[in-house]
Write a structure and sequence with these properties.
Blueprint lengths: L22 H36 L4 E5 H6 L9 E4 L5 E5 L2 E6 L3 E6 L1
Antiparallel strand pairs: 1-5, 2-3, 3-4, 4-5
């Protein structure tokens, strides 16, 4: 029975349980399997880091109020955060690590640091 390489399709010579014709094909095949999951996590982590840097830059004093559009203009993603905190009054603070924000009325955002 003739077997073909799972990566390139070439005929495999050697052991009967071989799946790849050489190390390059084996590495290429396994790298393709890993790319999907790892790139998703890497992209999310990079976006969280970007959000964190933006919050740090806009909130040097620990508590600042700014217009929401300023954050959007510099690329802040309001859909990505690491945790949520609800106060007794029912306010929802979204945090990106230790930097957080509260959406206020009138398109204002209160930036806070834990």
């Amino acid at each position: 029975m003739e077997k073909n390489c799972q990566e390139c399709g070439e005929k495999i010579v050697g052991r009967s349980d071989k799946k790849f014709c050489n190390d390059q094909c084996r590495n290429a095949f396994n790298n393709k399997l890993e790319v999907g999951d790892k790139s998703l996590v890497r992209n999310i982590n990079n976006a969280l880091k970007k959000n964190y840097k933006i919050l740090c830059a806009l909130n040097p004093s620990g508590k600042t109020k700014i217009p929401k559009h300023k954050m959007t203009e510099i690329g802040f993603n309001f859909n990505l955060y690491t945790q949520v905190h609800f106060t007794k009054k029912g306010d929802r603070y979204n945090y990106c690590y230790d930097e957080g924000y509260l959406l206020l009325e009138g398109n204002q955002v209160l930036l806070v640091k834990k």
